[in-house]
Amino acid sequence: MKTRRNMKILEIIKEKEIGTQEEMVLELRKAGFSVTQATVSRDIKDLGLIKVPGGSGISRYALPGETFSPKNDDRIKRLFKDSVISLENSENLIIIKTLPGEAQGVASAVDKLEWPEIIGTVAGDDTILVVTKPKKIVHAVMKEFTSLTGR
Questions:
Q1: Nearest to 90 by CA among 139, 128, 147
Q2: Would you tell me how many other CB atoms lie within 10 Å of the CB of residue 115?
């Protein structure tokens, strides 16, 4: 049953922009699966799904590595505004705190920006480590991130 349900989840996220676990529960129930939000939460974690900007500007579930266009500043700004809680830096490191479950989507968006000042990102559930080069550029990157949050 779990394998069928997980296959259905993958099918659903390919066909529709699903941004919340509640939306996924509704879609699975329409497809005949008797699920709870807790079950969907575990399935999302097991499948390794992340959130990425959707076509409507709202984050949606996707498989890691799924491509999307970060060139649309409005979409990136909405993702940062909706997901980022705080920004801190030390030396050449930036810490981005996000809402729970949002860090991987934000980190993926940062990676897709392909800023030469950013060496890379590491994301957990609600925290992202951004490494910049050289260390004197960290303030410029922080300023860009801050402008994306609208603060």
A1: 139
A2: 15
CB 97 within 8 A of CB 124: no
* Amino acid letter, residue 87: L
pLDDT-based confidence at 87, cuts 50/70/90? very high
**Can you list the domains of the chain with their CATH numbers?**
2-47 (1.10.10.10), 73-149 (3.30.1360.40)
Asked if residue 116 has a cis previous peptide bond (ω within 30° of 0), the answer is no
Q: Which long-range contacts (CB under 8 A, 24 or more apart) does 41-48 make?
A: 43/2, 43/5, 43/6, 43/9, 44/9, 46/6, 47/6, 47/9, 47/10
Question: Quick check: 27 and 18 in contact, CB under 8 A?
Answer: yes
pLDDT digits (tens, 9 = 90+) for 14-72: 888 898 999 999 999 999 999 999 999 999 999 988 877 665 556 788 877 665 544 45
